[in-house]
Amino acid sequence: MDSQTSKSYMAPLKNKLEEGTFIVGSIGAGYVGAITSIILAARQPNLKIIVCDVMQEQINKWNEGRFPFYEPDLEKYYDIAVNVNKNITFTVDVGNCIDQSDALFICVNTPPKVDSDAVLGKEADMTYFDAAIRNISNYGNPEKHKILIEKSTVPVGTYKRINSLLGEKIQNPEACFTIVNMPEFLAEGLAVQRLLNPDRIVIGTTEDLNGQEAFEVIKGLYTNTETLFLKLRTPSSELAKLFINGMLAQRVTSMNSMTYLCEKFGGSIQEVQRMTGSDPRIGPLWLQASPGFGGSCFEKDILSLIYIFESEGQQAQALYWKALLNMNDAQKHRILDMIISEFPEPESTTLTLFGFAFKKNTSDTRLTAIAYIANGLIHKGYHVKIHDPKVTERSFHFEMEVQGFNIVEKTNYEFCGSDYRKAVSGSSAIIIGTEWDEYNELNYNELITLMDGDKKNLYDFRSYVDVQQIQQAGFSKVFKLGN
Ligand SMILES: NC(=O)c1ccc[n+]([C@@H]2O[C@H](COP(=O)([O-])OP(=O)(O)OC[C@H]3O[C@@H](n4cnc5c(N)ncnc54)[C@H](O)[C@@H]3O)[C@@H](O)[C@H]2O)c1
Ligand SMILES: O=c1ccn([C@@H]2O[C@H](COP(=O)(O)OP(=O)(O)O[C@H]3O[C@H](CO)[C@@H](O)[C@H](O)[C@H]3O)[C@@H](O)[C@H]2O)c(=O)[nH]1
């Protein structure tokens, strides 16, 4: 590692921790920045937390308790932090947040670059990240040494990038800032529970004395959290974050690839899952079949990993990870084709999509697999109705546009929000794309009376409903993915 030194800058920060005057700043009040800060503030009354963002609307929402997204149990911890501990503030004054803080979590978005010239992968767009670092470089002061924490998911070598950006303005960046990587593993919908009980907290630092002591200072921010603290070299933790998402996506995709064979040969994907997951070398988690993985992280991070291999001239490895994304697309195509093949008269057929969020217990729609299905059905000419208990119409339209699905001129679809009656009336099929618990608890005897058509089908592309119970309502067919 570069910049190895036997000097430590941590003494004043250790004192502040001991005195209870330590201030943590978060740059970015999105999913990661806001949720991690709220939980930290609720857990550690000894810390003061400042959360800043460039978006006034986002900050207004947090200040007024109008959450910008749905995340189970977040309200309870927001209330503890804001009203009981009173140790968190939300602000658009990014400069003041940087100036005040002793440790800064950088939690800004790092999406795939739109105009990336790579063939297989996509470079992470570091525009927002770099802007945050340039802002931080205005506050370099050796008398007020700060720890900069890469919490955003970033390409390997970002710690060097930060150092050289800081160097544009400051002569001796290492005297003013210690840079560490601290990847975030929260999964949306489970974020609060995962942050209260993390499997591990990983800190990537230099291997010198300052790195070791920075690790101890960061550990000191989590005195009320029992977990394993892992200290790695910075490039290892930067790389492992991307790799872990690739591995998780690979597990899901491997299961999804087996759904066709189970259907064809009379197997059951749940049984394959049970047998596979009971092998201790594999384990049971992240093996649930689905219409394809979505979310803001898996695809983005795999594209970033592919880009890194590609730019290193490692074509075979790039192609290996690219195949995973192709497989995920193949699952979406297969599902769309399956629906279309069963309803040959689109113009006179209404179909209902149950769920648009990329998974249950979140209002987040980023890269949801259902957008592809919705677009395919709308463009084929079906009348498509979309239901989701938490997604807003605005998010639906925004996500369709972001994924490049142009439905602006189309009139053959309706976003129904959480209105079941509107969503199923006149419909020939209910298509479950998101595994919301309530879809498995509905009174299908009632819903079916609102439906119409020669046949009334139900498709469960999350493979989780009780087929026998739903079948009793009188559906012509209840299809469960991988069965
Ligand atoms: N969402 C997740 O579940 C998750 C989990 C782990 C890691 N991550 C990673 O964390 C990072 C953030 O993800 P997210 O989902 O929270 O994104 P997000 O889009 O929800 O939030 C990012 C926020 O940063 C703000 N921002 C951008 N530039 C800024 C600047 N210069 N100064 C201040 N604020 C700025 C934006 O306005 C936005 O509100 C990404 O790198 C992502 O890959 C996300
Ligand atoms: O068994 C499974 C598990 C997940 N999925 C799908 O995979 C996608 C991603 O799910 P999940 O991993 O639960 O959600 P994210 O919030 O995207 O979290 C992932 O990405 C985050 C951002 O990097 C990491 O912090 C988390 O550890 C990592 O799980 C979603 O569409 C899920 O429906 C399945 O189809 N089957």
From TrEMBL:
Please state every residue range assigned to the domain named UDP-glucose/GDP-mannose dehydrogenase C-terminal: 352-467
Pfam family, any one: UDPG_MGDP_dh_C
Q: Where is the active site?
A: 297
| EC number, UniProt record | 1.1.1.22
One GO CC term of this entry?
A: nucleus
Pathway entry: Nucleotide-sugar biosynthesis; UDP-alpha-D-glucuronate biosynthesis; UDP-alpha-D-glucuronate from UDP-alpha-D-glucose: step 1/1
Entry keyword Transmembrane: yes
Q: List, alphabetically, the SMART domains matched.
A: UDPG_MGDP_dh_C (SM00984)
Using the UniProt record, name the top-level EC class of this enzyme in a single word.
oxidoreductase
Q: Where do the annotations place NAD(+) binding?
A: 53, 110, 153, 188, 300, 366
Which parts of the chain span the membrane according to its record? Answer: 21-42
Q: Which reaction does it catalyse?
A: UDP-alpha-D-glucose + 2 NAD(+) + H2O = UDP-alpha-D-glucuronate + 2 NADH + 3 H(+)
Q: Which domain of life is it from?
A: Eukaryota
Amino acids binding substrate: 185-188, 241, 294, 359
Q: Keywords in UniProt for this one? A: Membrane, NAD, Oxidoreductase, Transmembrane, Transmembrane helix
* NCBIfam families reported for this sequence: NDP-sugDHase
Its family? Answer: Belongs to the UDP-glucose/GDP-mannose dehydrogenase family.
List the protein's name. UDP-glucose 6-dehydrogenase
Gene name in the database record: Contig7257.g7759
